[in-house]
Specification:
By secondary structure, the protein is mostly beta strands. The chain has 2 helices and 16 strands.
């Protein structure tokens, strides 16, 4: 049911963008790509040791930006899903992101726009701490899911860089899975238990925050057929520990080999005070999260 809901959401979002462009094509700039990356290694009776492996990643990235007179409407959709298989082990998830962003702006000056910004982030498949086990998910679809809506202003000094500042931003964190909610995952209020360990009150499935958000974006061609894309996000909750700023920094370098083959390097850094992680020594607390991936594969450009 949850996967059906998210699929419908994706389709409605894309249909709205495509349908809107049919009547006002000249005011829209569309750009997108869909691709599949694959890596494989096979070993048999290999004296030096090792194991066979298969690595896959699929992605869909699409943007549709509208501009007319003093108004603009920027929209983007990002979906990534990757798995690796080592020997006879179960597939291990390496990447999973579903993100929608929409920003309406009205020009104030040549480089400043008043803005209303919306974002939605979640994942599609269960996530596990594979160092511990692969049977108890630590994240699921809509667990977590983040929805933000902010009012502010955007500065666009040129075509490759922009900064949106939303000092009035509401953010909701959803943890739909009750087991994760009972554990207090992703900052929601945990379940209450009596002295015998019997649950007397369910954990909360929703957490509300109100604060300020900053999003800086850079999209620049470093060389011919080499593009660098970066998005840097900060969020501070005015209602609870405003000095503990959440950070989400996504970077991607894409090197185009030809019209259908490309290589990419992706890196993401996250720090969220409300996400507890168990380290190798068994200590639990917020940690700086980092992920890096290199991929070579097929890509098709959408127009």
């Amino acid at each position: 049911m949850k996967k059906t809901i998210i699929t419908i959401t994706m389709l409605v979002f894309l249909f709205t963008l495509v349908n809107a462009q049919q009547d006002t094509t000249k005011y829209w700039k569309r750009e997108g790509r869909v691709g599949f990356n694959f890596a494989q290694g096979y070993l048999s009776n290999w004296a030096a040791g090792g194991t066979s492996s298969v690595n896959t990643q699929g992605y869909l990235q699409y943007s549709a930006n509208y501009a007319k007179d003093n108004h603009k409407w920027d929209n983007s959709f990002d979906f990534l899903l990757g798995y690796s298989v080592f020997g006879d082990e179960k597939p291990m998830k390496t990447d999973d992101r579903l993100e929608l962003n929409s920003l309406y702006g009205k020009k104030i000056t040549e480089k400043w726009f008043s803005s209303l910004a919306f974002s939605f982030k979640t994942q599609t498949n269960d996530g596990f701490d594979y160092k511990a086990d692969s049977t108890h998910p630590i994240s699921k679809i809509f667990s977590p899911a983040y929805v933000t809506l902010g009012i502010g202003a955007e500065w666009t000094p040129n075509k490759i860089f922009s900064v949106n500042i939303s000092p009035l931003t509401a953010r909701g964190t959803f943890v739909i899975d009750q087991t994760l909610a009972d554990a207090g995952a992703f900052g929601v209020e945990a379940a209450t238990y009596d002295i015998t360990g019997t649950k007397i009150e369910d954990g909360q499935n929703f957490r509300f925050e109100f604060g300020g958000k900053l999003v800086a974006k850079l999209n620049v061609d470093l060389a011919k057929n080499v593009n660098f894309l970066s998005k840097f996000e900060l969020f501070s909750d005015y209602l609870k520990k405003p000095k503990n700023v959440d950070v989400d920094w996504q970077n991607q370098i894409t090197m185009k080999v030809n019209s259908w083959l490309n290589a990419s390097i992706m890196a993401q850094l996250i720090y969220d005070e409300d996400i507890n992680i168990t380290d190798k020594d068994g200590k639990i607390g917020p940690r700086t999260q980092f992920k890096e991936m290199f991929a070579l594969g097929l890509r098709y450009t959408l127009k």
